[in-house]
Every structure is written in C-alpha cells, then in structure tokens.
Amino acid sequence: MHRTRFAAALIVALPLLTLSARVAPRPGVDWPSFRGIDASGVADGPETPTTFTPASAAWKTPLAGLGLSSPIIWGNLLCLSTAISGQKDAGLKVGLYGNIESVPDDTAHEWKVACFNKRDGTLAWERTVHKGVPKVNRHPKSTHANSTLATDGTHLAALFGSEGLHVYTLKGRLLWKKDLGVLDAAFFMVPGAQWEYGSSPIIHDGKVIVLADVMKDSFLAAFDVKNGKELWRTPRADVPTWGSPAVISADGRQQVVVNGWKHVGGYDLKTGTEIWKLRATGDIPVPTPVFGHGLIFLTSAHGPGSPVYAVKPTATGDITLEGSATSNEHIAWSVPRDGAYLSTPLVYGEYLYVVRHGGVLNVYNAKTGERAYQQRLANQKQLAAGAFTASPVANNGRVYIPSEDGHIYVVKAGPAYELLAINEMDAPVLATPAISEGRLFVRTGDQIMAFGGSK
Asked: For labelling, which of 100, 162, 276, 299 has a CA lying 20 to 30 Å from the CA of 211?
C-alpha cells in the first residue's frame, strides 16, 4: 500500500520536476531578456553567419508601429513589443544630433505584445496590452515601446512605463497587470523634454524586478511573478535613467545592480536593502550593468564625464572615488573619459568591449583595465560610422555591433582590431539583436529578420 502511494506520488511529481528543470535558460538556445542570459549578450555554440543581407534572410516578418524593444527567445518562441500611433507616419529620427524636444503626438495608440515562431517567423499570438493616448511624450529617437520583454520560460513580463506592467503566460494568457503611475523619464534639466521610459524588467527567482528612475517618486521594486504582489520597493533619489537592472550572484550573495548618476548602486535581492552606492559622472545613464571575471562593469557618457567602472561584488557602503583616483578598495579599475552613452558594454573572453555613441570602439582587458585598442568603426567606403544605440552581442569569436544607419559591423574578438564584415540592413537598427541556435535575429524599424541556421 505504501509502495503504491509512493509510486503514485512520484508519477504526479515527475511533470513538476521536468517543468522546474526547464525554467533555467539554456545557453545558446534561450535569450530570455535584454541582451540574453544575465544581459551578457553572448551565445556561443552553433555558428551565426559573418556576412548577410536582407536578401539572404532565412525569413523576415513585417512589424506594425514603432518599438525599440529587443527580441527575446524561449525555445521556439520569439517575442517583442510595439506601439502603434494614430498617425500614419509616427516618425523616428536617427543619427547624431542634439535635439531634446519631444514628439507631439496625442493620438490614440495601441500597445502590443507579439510572439513569433523563431523557425519561420510566423505569428504565434498577439495581444493588445493597452489602448489610449500616451501619458508622456517621447524623444524623436525613442518610441512608446522601448522596454524589452522578459521571460522565465513560464511567464512573460511586458513593461510599458506609464501604461503599466503586464504579465502573461507564454501562450498569451494575461495573468495580472499593475499600474505603476506616471513614469516620466524626461531630461532632468528641461522637464518639458519628455523622452519616454526605457528600462527593461528582468525575472529572477520568481521576482519581476523593475527600475523606475523618473522625474518624481523614483524606485526599484520587486513583484511576485505569479500574482503581482509587491514584495519590496526601495525609493531612489536620482535623475531619470534608462538602464535595466541586473542581478549579480557572487561571493555568496545576490544583489540587484542598477546604473545611475547620483546613485549607481547594489541592493539585496531578497529585501531591496541598499548594499553599496557610487556617485558617477555621467548624468544620463543608459547602459545596463554587466558582470564578468568577478567584476561589475558600469558606464555612462553624458554631462561632466564618461566613466567606465569595474566594481568588486564585495563592495559595501559609499564607494565613490575621491579626487583623481581611479581605484579604491571596492573599485578594481576605472577610466574617466571612454564610457558609452547608450550602448551596454560586452564582456567576451578576456576583454570588455565599449561602443561609444559616435562609433568609437574601446577594448580593455577586463581584469586589469589596460586598453587593448581604440578604433573608430567605418565602412570600406570610409563613410562616417553614424550613431550607435543598440548593444554589441557575440558568438564564436565574433562581435556584432549594429549602427543606427543600418550597418552591422562584425569584429574579430581579441586584443587587436580586425574587421571581418559590414552588413547593410537597408533600414535603421536601434534594437539589440538576439542569438539562438546559430541564428541572428535583427529588428529594424519595420521588420524582424533571421539570419543563418537551417531554414
């Protein structure tokens, strides 16, 4: 009798064990949030192509509306978001320019989440998340769907700033939604210059983590991914920022690390309690923190400085550098003037790749901070490289660097600059590509394309 009960219990438990095992993302297959697993941007394994054009795409699917959210992937499902204006041409202005004014568009919009079969680009499901007039305006180079989605293999989190946080199943069933209030990410020096929210959520250990550095009542918060219950909320006193939070697991503790100007910081994952803080010198932080070689890398590049920091995960208290110092007990190394404005850096192999907004690539030894090289990216015709918003990604010894003008530069990884290819997409690329099973997935202004792999 006891054996029968035990066998029955084991049979019931097996599917739960299988489901639990699948929750961990598979390197080279799943790309569950902004820049993939842990925002690393790396997916080694089956080889992605070095050269490609839209004509050589395995598939391409048109996209309605405007969105800078990057594609995410779980298994065979590729998902992204978009916002459709009531204007026929909502307009997206790319390139190097200094305009800070917002786009005046008070038409009714539709915010959508769409998921596709990553094998052939066919639509699996689509949901309209919200309809209405946007609560804040956007920058000409921004959209109302900037935040990349996040999944843990069971849930799909979609954050649309002032239009709320929405969590679905991977089959498109809405589980819960939460109004986070008006999240006005404006230029702090000119509050009327509303640029729209841009931080992406992450899912970790059953928590949806949201960073909202905005003009009023900024916070970092964690919600139960199953039901939306607020687990903790920590107020932040910083100017609007656009980077995403990152969870760093090292030295026996898990911490949520966020970029900032007045308050770069690390927070306890369980409680939201501050662990360490740093006052930086770049006043409009956008890049997301990344981790590698036992160091947390942070960068920004606007205002009084453009630093790169390599912070030890054991940091505690105020770790701000004093005077002209480039290191201290908690900061292994730093450089004051080579940081990235919009693009998240890449740790790949022994090196840290930092792409500046104007197309200058700085490569450092990640452990020591010694610069391996500095190179301005340009094509074979020696045209200007343009502006760079999307972040680099890597596969099998190659680094892919997209530009706003529609070029994807492919650089050989390592301590010396070697340009392998420049691929023209015939459309702007501001969203960071995704990599899965030997395929590179690129979102342009009006479509999503897949390159490489088996058709």
From this structure: 100
**Cβ–Cβ under 8 Å, residues 48 and 433:** no
Checking phi first, is residue 261 left (phi over 0); if not, alpha (psi -120 to 50) or beta? alpha
Give the strand pairing for 317-318 and 274-278. parallel
Partners of 187 in the β-ladder:
190
Beta 346-348 vs 351-355: how paired, if at all? antiparallel
Cα distance between residue 75 and residue 97, in whole Å: 39
Q: Centre a 10 Å sphere on the Cβ of residue 189 and count the other Cβ atoms it contains.
A: 11
For the beta sheet containing 174-178, the strands, ordered from the edge strand earlier in sequence to the opposite edge, are: 150-151, 155-159, 165-169, 174-178
- CA distances to 312, 373, 376, 444 from 418, in Å: 31, 11, 12, 26
pLDDT in tens, 154-212: 999 999 999 999 999 999 999 999 999 999 999 999 999 999 999 999 999 999 999 99
Spatial separation of the C-alpha atoms in residues 233 and 311, rounded to whole Å: 24
User: In 3-state terms, what secondary structure has residue 401?
Assistant: strand
Q: pLDDT (tens digit, 9 = 90+) per residue, 403-439?
A: 999 999 999 999 999 999 999 999 999 999 999 999 9
Three-state DSSP class for 201? coil
CA distance 65 to 345: 28
pTM of the model: 0.94
Instruction: Indicate the fold that domain 24-451 takes in CATH.
Output: Methylamine Dehydrogenase; Chain H (2.130.10)
Beta bridge partners of 393: 400
Q: Which residue has the tokens 């908690």?
A: 330
Contact in structure between 280 and 264 (CB atoms under 8 Å)? yes
Query: What is the full DSSP assignment across 364-395?
Result: EETTT--EEEEEE---TT--------SPPEEE
SS3 state of residue 55: helix
Contact 435, 424 (CB under 8 A): no
Closest CA to 448 of 26, 63, 39: 63
Residue in 143, 111, 26, 122 with CA at minimum distance from that of residue 73 = 26
